[in-house]
Amino acid sequence: MGKNYRKALSLLTATVLALSLAGCGGGGSDKAQKSGNTGASGGEEKIQLKVYAQHFDEDTAKPFDYAVAELKKEMPNVEIILDEAVQDGYQKLKTYAATGNMPDIYDTDWATLQTFAKAQNVEVLDDYPETAEFKAKLNKGVESKLVAPDGHVYAFPYPGIEFQLIYYNKEIFEKVGIQTPIKTYDQMIEASNKLSAAGYIPMAIFAKEKWITTAFYAGLVTREQGTTGYGDLEAKGTTAMPDPFVRAAEEMYKLKEANLFDANATNTNYDQASAQFYSGKAAMFVNGQWEIYSSTEKLGDKVDWMYWPAKDEAAYESGKGFINGSGAPGGFAVSPSSKHKDVAVKVASFLAQKYGEYKYTQLGSPITAIKVDKPITVEVPPMMKRIAEEVLPNATQYMTPINNVQIKNAIDDSTQNMLVKGYTVQQFVDNINRVMARENK
Amino acid sequence: MKQIKTALLQLPLWIYFVISVYPLVWMISYSLKNNEEIFVTNPFGLPTHFRIENYIAAWSQFNIPKYFLNSLVVSSISTLLILVLSLMFSFAIARMRWKFRESARLYMTVGMFMPLQVIMIPLAILVRDFHLTNTYGALIVPYVAIGLPFSCLVFYGFMKGIPGELEESACMDGANIYRMFLQIIVPIVTPAIATVAIFQFLNNWNEFMLAYILISDETMKTLPLGLLFFQGQYSTDWGGMGAVMTIASLPLVIIYLFFSEQVENAMTVGSAVKG
Amino acid sequence: MNRYLSNKKAIILFLLPALLIYSVVIIYPVLQTFYRSFFNWDGLSAATWNGIANYLDLFHDPLLITSLCNGLIFAVVLVVFQIGLGTILALACADPRIKARKLLKTAYFIPVVLSVTVVCQLWIAMYDPTNGLINRLFSLLHIPYQQNWLTSPTASIIAIAFVNAWQFMGYQFSLLYAGVKSIPEQYMEAATIDGCSKWMAHLKVTLPLMKETYKFCFIVAITSGIGAFVQMLIMTNGGPGTSNYTLTFMIYRYAFLESNYGYACAVSVVLVSLSLLATIVINKTFDRNEA
């Protein structure tokens, strides 16, 4: 027994040693492999491209499959290998970058692109012919989705500038006796009181996700005069929140104190909040314009959306053209280490365009980055028609985006806190000012 | 009278029994409900309508047998290696006499505190450099390393408590050190081995983070990654997730129920050796 | 005997495999982390030397205070619940007078077998202020106390710590149970012959003999309190605001959400140092009690 054991032990030690030795040797050979990058492309041979894109439910899989099918017609020699991305804050993509294992094409957001740009993990697309072509096809007002604040192009976007709406249940409003649309803060507070008294949750919000509280606050900010958006908070030398932001925070505080939101709001996820609205427990719901599809499906003609309220009717009317959404670059980017870079750029641009085409022709969404010249093939929900006819043509201004991640996170934290009873405007302002003072000096 | 008193004294034990078993029942009910029942109409009760479709969805979304097999291979091999390596290591620091054994113990402890989030990227690079990407080794090697500190410390505690006379008598009997380790020390710590084995196996079986970051190859994925198939862009299919979690956990519970009997037996053997 | 137990070849043979794999996979990244904590680094591009600036910033970071307090609360809840209850249940299950001990013992371990995600989902439902069982239990018992468990900046951390404590109690329990079982019965018999009651005998004989087990249980409970993370991530995502942040949550935020890797490394160094310190203090305290 003892002998056997000793044998096993030495075998084990040998294995572990061998393993680690192989590892040491491995590092070198790996590098050799990488530098020996044989660019045997060209001709009509099959080109394989690895694409890292979201493909996990109907909303993400359908446009991808549509775009890939179209690509097959256009470039039959390109084969797409899908690497399925999930919503993980691009952690896996960053690991790919750190291990030098980047996919040829990947779909990502502005924060990640910024990091990648610094580390040269994203191809600068400025001088590619596809970029000029793409620029020419852009919809009005969405240049900021393509051209980054530093003047470079890093990715081909597919959606236009998305924004948030307040959805409401007409039936409940009628029953409780609230005049629509709600135009002023005071009317909103009154509505909130009436709805709570009647046993409804006035407004469902999935505030477990912080971006939605930031979006709600953004809606209020756009109704105050004298700001162009969150971008104002990262101007060099600005160490205190400008007035319109403070006024918007005061209004948000009043709305919270009027019980506009459920006590459990900051621990409510999307599925719970939408269930509240669709089951008739909540009278209003705040979410992006994409919610139009499910709300039409669930509530039919009982649901409509309204503009954000303002301090008085005049401000309400003049604020209608100020959209509470901002365009930040994002979409399909190309890795500089791709073996077929030129093809990859072409494919990235193609995929982005086909995504937009899908959203327009199959969903009737006018919010796409590029103009689509094909007809809509489906019946467009009336709420979406209102967006196309009422909002987009009259949009005078979009919010300026914020690039500084620290300030952005401070806003996210503080707006979520704003829904908590007892959290004051002063705390809100102090917390954001502290971060601004550090970042903008 | 006395019986009533004992019953009353034992009541809390049974209350805690219910609190411990309920989650199992809850998880299975959860996997048979849809989102509305889970969040609004029936969060705690048994399902009124058995939604088998959650399981069908889970079955059709991904290759459950393959994922299951991968989980089994990775978890078993890792657990086995952890046990062997940490028993040896703890024996050396708990029973053998040399200068730096306290430092060796402290050295081993450090790794217990390191959050995965930080070593993730260096680890991914290591896995690449060792050519382990998309092999079982990509998970087994990190799992073994991560499991070691914890297991070593448990075994250390148990080995430390063994009376020295046992070693002396073994020494007198002329057994060499390896034989003493295998025939005297290991049997005595069997209860601890059983506990550590269960815990490490569970840890590896349920591990998500590393499996997610280090494995991209579909044929190498482990069961917890199946959860990803139910997270939509906006909405999540919680019932479907429940089904995956039930598929992943139920076999463990059943194995444990059988295994705990073995543990009990092992313990009796263990104390017999001691006596 | 001494020569027998200081067999150099055997020591090396026993130590080497574990040391090797552990050093390469864990210690090497740990050292890297320590080194990187002196850099301004986003995790990908070239790092620039930053001296101790990360640490200076860290000590002015309000998140650090929040995280330390939460870690402390977490640790206290874990110690009290897991070790307190774990001891009582372990002694009870080792008592031959209790019926169906095997069944109880198995049941107590079940929460450990379930995945953290399942357990967190269950407790999110339990803590729901209107539909949740906890608030309903209070009103059922006519206690006029209702709490927004997971949205209150103060109550939520305790509520979450409790979930962790409850789930992994079974683990501490089984360690303690194994500890109780490994004590030779003669010791117990001797004590009862001396006229001690069963519980007194435990207090005087069993518990002191289980010193090493307890030492380990304390280390696990306290350090996992300081480093807690997953439960917050799932149950409240650190909120409302940042009220549920812990050191690991800070690391997660700085490394992955803000791409401030160097700073995240500095937080990690603080986390590891604190945990080590706690371990050393626990070791010293237990060893002093012995003397």
TrEMBL record, chain A:
**Pfam families registered for this protein in UniProt:** SBP_bac_1
Q: Which UniProt keywords apply?
A: Signal
Which Gene3D superfamilies does this UniProt record tie to the protein? Periplasmic binding protein-like II (3.40.190.10)
> SUPFAM superfamilies, alphabetically?
Periplasmic binding protein-like II (SSF53850)
Signal peptide range in chain numbering: 1-22
Do the record's keywords include Acetylation? Answer: no
Task: Report whether ATP-binding shows up as a keyword of the record.
Answer: no
PANTHER family assigned to the protein according to its UniProt record, in alphabetical order: ARABINOSE-BINDING PROTEIN-RELATED (PTHR43649), DIACETYLCHITOBIOSE BINDING PROTEIN DASA (PTHR43649:SF12)
Q: What is the official name of this protein in its record?
A: Extracellular solute-binding protein
Automatic annotation (TrEMBL), chain B:
Q: Where in the cell is it found?
A: Cell membrane
Topology of this chain in the membrane: Multi-pass membrane protein
Question: Which InterPro entries does the entry link to?
Answer: MetI-like (IPR000515), MetI-like_sf (IPR035906)
Domain ABC transmembrane type-1 span(s) in chain numbering: 68-259
Give start-end of the signal peptide.
none
Q: Which residues cross the membrane?
A: 12-32, 72-94, 106-127, 139-159, 180-202, 238-259
Q: Extract the Pfam families matched here.
A: BPD_transp_1
Which GO BP terms sit in this record? transmembrane transport
Q: Which SUPFAM superfamilies match?
A: MetI-like
Alphabetic keyword roster: Cell membrane, Membrane, Transmembrane, Transmembrane helix, Transport
Family matches, as PROSITE patterns: ABC_TM1
Can you quote a single GO CC term? plasma membrane
**Family the UniProt entry places it in:** Belongs to the binding-protein-dependent transport system permease family.
The protein in question is named Carbohydrate ABC transporter permease
Look up and give the organism this protein is from. Answer: Paenibacillus faecis
Automatic annotation (TrEMBL), chain C:
Presence of keyword Transferase: no
Localization (cell): Cell membrane
Q: What is the protein's major site of localization? A: membrane
SUPFAM superfamilies for this protein: MetI-like (SSF161098)
Q: InterPro entries of this UniProt entry? A: ABC_transporter_permease, MetI-like, MetI-like_sf
Establish whether keyword Calcium is in the entry: no
Q: Where are the transmembrane segments?
A: 12-31, 72-94, 106-127, 216-234, 261-282
What are the GO cellular component annotations? plasma membrane
Residues forming coiled coils: none
Q: Its membrane topology, per UniProt?
A: Multi-pass membrane protein
ABC transmembrane type-1 domain segment(s): 68-282
Q: Which family does it belong to?
A: Belongs to the binding-protein-dependent transport system permease family.
Recorded protein name is Sugar ABC transporter permease
